[in-house]
Structures are given as C-alpha cells and as structure tokens.
Amino acid sequence: MTDLALEWLNLVLRWMHLIFGIAWIGSSFFFVWLDNSLRKGETQQPGVLGQAWLIHGGGFYFTEKYSVAPAHLPPELHWFKYEAYFTWISGFFLLGVLYYVGADLYLIDPKVLPLSQGEAIGLSLASLFLGWIVYDLLCKSPLGKNDALLAIVGFVLLVAAAWGYTQIFSARAAYLHVGALIGTIMAANVAHNIIPNQRKAVAEMLAGQVPDPTYGKQAKQRSLHNNYLTLPVLFAMISNHYPITYGHPYGWVILAVVMVIGGLVRHFFNLKNQGRGRRYEFLAVAFLLVVGLVFFTHWDPRKKAFGEAVSAEEVHRITASRCTPCHAAKPTFDGIAEAPKGIMLETPEQLKRYAALINQQAVRTETMPPGNATGVTEEERQKIGAWIAAGAPLD
What we know:
Elements: H1 2-37, E1 48-56, E2 59-66, H2 82-100, H3 103-107, H4 117-140, H5 147-166, H6 171-206, H7 213-238, H8 243-246, H9 251-273, H10 280-298, H11 312-322, H12 348-353, H13 355-364, H14 378-389
Antiparallel strand pairs: 1-2
Helix pairs in contact: 1-2, 1-7, 1-9, 2-6, 4-6, 5-6, 5-9, 6-7, 7-9, 9-10, 11-14, 13-14
C-alpha cells in the first residue's frame, strides 16, 4: 500500500509540475515574443516604447509597452509570478519523492561515488543553492554589463556543473540535477529579481515618483536569461526516458551540445520576432548538431567484445534474479509497486521481445538496474549481450 501511495504521489506531482510548467513557459514565451514584436505606432503616445496588434480566439487585442512606466498606476495590475513559484515547488517535491526518498536507487551510484543517503541529499541541496548564488553574483558583478561575455561564462559554468554532477551522482540523477539547477536559477530570477524590481517600481509610482528605469533593465536581463534557458531545462526534464544520452560515458558533453542547440533555436525565434529576418543559419547549425549527436552517441569507448553465444535459458536465469524483481507482474523489489513502463521480463519470449531495449540499457549504457541495485556483474552483462548479439535465439 505504501509503494502504491508513493507511485500515486509521484504521478500527481509530475502532473502538477507539467501543468505549472506549461503555464510559466507559455507566459514567458508570450511576453518575450510580445517584447520582440513591438513596433512604433502612428498614434503612439509619449513614453510608449512600442505597440502591437494581436488576433486570437476570434477577437482583436491592442497592447502598448511603456519605456519605464505610465503616468498613473492603473487600478488593476496583473502580475505573473505564481506559475514560476509553483513550477519550482512541485519540481522540488518531485525531486524529493523520487530521488531523495529513493536515493539508493536513483540518486547514488556506488561505482561513481559511494555516498550515504544523507551525504547525497546534502550535496544535492547545496549544489542548487550554491549554483544560484554564483549566478546571481555574476549578474551583479561588472561582468553582468556585458551580455555576451556573461552568457559565455554562464555556459562554461553550467557545463562544469554537468561534468561535476556526473562525478557525484548516478548518470540519470546528474542530468536531472542540471535541469533542477537551471530551474532553480530561473525561478529565483523571478522571486529575487524580477518581482522585487517590479514592486519597487510600483512603490515609487504610489509615492508620486517616476520609477528608476534600472529596475526594468535588470528584470528584463533576467527574463531574457530564462527565455534562453527554457529549452535546455525541458530537455533535462525528459532525459530520464532516454539513456542513450545520460548513459553515455560523455553524457555531460551531450548535455552541453543540447544547451547550444536550445540557445540557437531560441535565438532564431527572438531575431525573427524582432523583425531582423529569418536567420535560418541558426536552425541549420542546430540541426547539424543534432545529427552530430546521433553519431556521437553511436560511438561508445566502452563498447564490449562479446564471447561465445549463450542460451536463452542461461540468460533467463540471470534476469530472473537481476531484472524480474522489478520487471514482473508482481514486483518483489522494495519500493516498486508495478513493472516500470509495464515491461515484464519473466519469460524468454519477453526477453526476446525487449532485447533491443535490454541491450541499450543493461548492456551498453549499464543504466539498468538503477544504481545496479540487484548487483548485476560484468560477466552477466557480457552473457546477456552475447545472447542478444546472436539474435536472441529461443532454442
């Protein structure tokens, strides 16, 4: 019953995280698009930076953006903040339910670094907090006045963090933590810079003063950072379904390239919306990098040379003790309520059906079982691989 309750908690938190994330990313993308789409209008009033006409849902909309603020504070002002807050909160609880409660299974890999549950959780929390502090200090330093240089330094630090996580946690957890780090930075940008600066501007207007334009500039810089970080964080969120990425011995390199791809795609749309042409070269480079990743993931320095083929019966004996505790109609492994992804490996026929998946996750990348919880030996992985390489024969 406890395992089933945890499974439902996991599902509900994922659902909430997805809903809040859609709301946050949707509003973020819309306002960046709107900012880039503003144009000078014929009826534009003094102090207005630009205007935009929109049509949606059968109606027309007219919007204006002020260079600093309107002359008078409107009676009703809509704030956009809770989407970011609840996305991070639901994501953090999801991290706790899956990776902290199940630290021995998903967070810790003894082959990488033998940590206790408390040590692993402590390092996780410290890294998220420290990552935000370093980023925030960089933005407030003289480096923050040079957007291009700040972006380069920030990218290098994120890649360093990605590599560092692979030296501490399991490969799957390393990817997830890069996403959690980026998500923490994005949410903290809203909570500790964007919203406070907007509150300062509103307070000055209520006091009859003209708001300091610095508040808006600082908030816009952080908002733009969030815009470019969105696609990489989405990739990190879904990566746990694709061990071809995090399971590669140079998974951190793959993640670094994905960050570049996400940045190129966002830059294309930002330039397009600014009316600076369709710079398809950015999309072309992004496409070539994706193709390059396909070839890169095919190359694996750990590629195994298998010995003589083994029988399906021998492979079945191995998987019966190493795989079916989880992948069974009634799992016996503590904390597993049902077979992951509904995949059952209780018969030779089922093993043959999922041979390609087993080869990818248990033999090639060794990401299964998570944290090698059932103690699969290298010799056993070799035998499974030899059987699959021979065509997974049943006789």
